Amino acid sequence: MGEIRLEKVHKAFGSTVVIPEIDLEIADNEFVVFVGPSGCGKSTLLRLIAGLEDTTSGRILIDGEDMTARAPAKRGLSMVFQSYALYPHMSVYKNIAFPLKMAGADTAVIDEKVRNAARILNLTDYLDRRPGQLSGGQRQRVAIGRAIVREPKAFLFDEPLSNLDAALRGSMRLEISELHHQLNTTMIYVTHDQVEAMTMADKIVVLNAGRIEQVGSPLELYRSPRNLFVAGFIGSPR
Ligand code: ADP
Ligand code: MG
């Protein structure tokens, strides 16, 4: 479970067309990276999948079911933001528990899921702390923990590491890849960082001005870029 299909997805804000038309298939359990320059529509595309934006036209299907008009909470997806979006006045435990509490889960179930997520993310010793008492990497793990407890069909990450320093980015990259192996869940990961795309992706979707330039494995894009844009983007060091 976790197959996502976009059919002729078009998005405009007023008269500004951001996504002219995109068709895309994401297989269950695939790690897909959307990569492209700033302003090319990566976040918009992710938000359309999450349901945080409405499509102007086209359809979004998850496991064959039309989700186009479905509210974000009813799509079975979890989104992780670059800004963490944690509640500063709540403990780590309560931050992770929050979505379950909102959904009315019972206390024992919440406790088991929170502790399980904390174990996976090495946060067990930090459950009583507030976000302000954590490092950037730990905060990002809390945000991921909050996504995990919902047991989503897919995780959507929007540049989750861009607020971290280079060394931490490297280790979090490995952690997220490891998480993907452990959870066996579809992940869509947005970045403008070629290294993240090349090292983490099963499949890379290269976007340019709201269009897909090329879709392929890191090796395919590296060896046979379809055009200069892809070659420049995948090939050029940053
Ligand atoms: P990226 O994440 O690749 O940097 P975005 O998806 O954030 O790009 O933005 C793509 C384009 O859509 C940009 O030109 C941006 O200004 C525009 N855009 C995004 N959100 C809105 C909005 N709510 N209203 C108007 N324009 C928007
Ligand atoms: Mg963005």
Automatic annotation (TrEMBL):
<keyword id="KW-0547">Nucleotide-binding</keyword>
<keyword id="KW-0067">ATP-binding</keyword>
<feature type="domain" description="ABC transporter">
    <location>
        <begin position="4"/>
        <end position="234"/>
    </location>
</feature>
<dbReference type="GO" id="GO:0005524">
    <property type="term" value="F:ATP binding"/>
</dbReference>
<protein>
    <submittedName>
        <fullName>ABC transporter ATP-binding protein</fullName>
    </submittedName>
</protein>
<keyword id="KW-0813">Transport</keyword>
<comment type="similarity">
    <text>Belongs to the ABC transporter superfamily.</text>
</comment>
